[in-house]
Amino acid sequence: MSDTSIPSGAPAPKPWIEAIHAYVPGKSAGADGRKLIKLSANENPLGTSPAALAAAAEAAAPSLYPDPVGAALCEAIGKLHGIDAARIVMGAGSDELLNLAAQGYAGPGDDVIYARFGFSVYDIAARRCGATPVIAPDADYGSDVNSLLALVSERTRVVFIANPNNPTGSYLPKGEIARLHAALPPDVLLVIDQAYGEYVAPEDEDGAMALAAAHDNVLVTRTFSKIYGLAGERIGWATGAPSLIATLNRIRLPFNVSNTGQAMALAALGDQAFVDMSRRHNADERAHFVERIAALGNHGLRPLPSEANFVLILFEGALSAEQAYEGLMEAGYIVRWLPGQGLPQALRITIGTAQQMDAIADALAAMAEAAK
Ligand SMILES: *Cc1c(COP(=O)(O)O)cnc(C)c1O
């Protein structure tokens, strides 16, 4: 790493910007540069819909600006989800929209609340607009509505919650999301991040979309990065009251979603068979993988229940998460070890192919046995 300290007399960033720890992405190679199978960033192991890949070739118009609002894409999203297109805004990934939500509604002297072990972008989003991040204690790693509500004060401007949550995979049912919303003052913005929403069985949905449709203080964010397999194209969207959408439109970059990205997302939306196949694959492989890891409970391995496309495994026995991380790297797999997020005892593993998950479970079993 080069020296990033500020030379004397050089431009100094705002103190709240300097306090930010830059986002740490999932790695795709080992320390020696060897290419590894990447199960560290919750990408779709089935790739991308063939329809979306075909659309990319057709849409190529790099010399032209994209549609600034993504009108066709907003229409298609609206149709699929039963939302008026005027209540949708596109983002360069949902990360952009999460940042804009904080920036639009919070600043120096204001609080932004989220759960311990919540998505790491919330901390950056809160700090970069000068607001104070306020962290609610977890309940066995999951988000806890009571502890979030206990921190609400007259300084609170935004509450972030990911449902399902990353990196824990935990999920709050509809009743808990409704209870959280009902207890918040109407002038506090509740941002419900549904990056993994499509992985949740339809009968278990959390009611966030209905809250965003009915109230002026709920924003729901979604992404094409996860089940739609378009992480490289950077496309997310948010829905909420027209006043919220107008705020985000004022401060987003004018052409934030590329031509190719819009065309691919539109085609991907039209291929719900690919989405259904991805959801089924994930549910089947996750259940099988969790069962195999739970069988290593006598060695201190504990998979947390997950509604997303990854599983967080706690290492509470002789085999440490760090040793398992290194061992899996030896076996050719890169997963996510999260000491920087207060989880040195855990690995987050994206659900890959059946063969990959079996190989990982075999490797963990062998390591756990040897560590006794
Ligand atoms: C992956 C992820 C996102 C967003 O990713 P984008 O690629 O920026 O759309 C948002 N929230 C959570 C919880 C995530 O895990």
List its traits.
7-stranded mixed β-sheet, 372 residues, globular, alpha/beta, Aspartate Aminotransferase, domain 2, single chain, binds pyridoxal-5'-phosphate, 38% helix, Aspartate Aminotransferase, domain 1
Explain the layout of strands and helices.
Layout: H1 15-18, E1 37-38, H2 50-59, H3 71-81, E2 88-91, H4 93-105, E3 111-115, H5 121-128, E4 132-136, H6 145-150, E5 156-162, H7 174-183, E6 189-193, H8 208-214, E7 218-223, E8 236-239, H9 242-251, H10 259-270, H11 272-294, E9 301-303, E10 310-315, H12 321-330, E11 333-334, E12 336-338, E13 343-350, H13 354-371
Helix pairs in contact: 2-10, 3-10, 4-5, 4-9, 11-13
The structure holds pyridoxal-5'-phosphate.
Largest sheet: 7 strands, mixed
Number of helices: 13
Instruction: Label the CATH architecture of the largest domain.
Output: 3-Layer(aba) Sandwich
State the distance separating the first and last CA atoms: 37 Å
- Return the CATH class of the largest domain: Alpha Beta
Percentage of β-strand residues: 15-25%
Rg over CA atoms, rounded to whole Å, is 21 Å
Oligomerization category of the chains in this entry: single chain
Count of distinct strands: 13
CATH fold naming of the largest domain: Aspartate Aminotransferase, domain 2
Helicity level, as a percent range?
Answer: 25-40%
Mean pLDDT: 96
Unreliable stretches covering 5 or more consecutive residues: none
CATH superfamily of the largest domain: Type I PLP-dependent aspartate aminotransferase-like (Major domain)
Question: Could you give the order of the helices and strands?
Answer: HEHHEHEHEHEHEHEEHHHEEHEEEH
* Ligand names: pyridoxal-5'-phosphate
Q: Any idea what the shape is?
A: globular
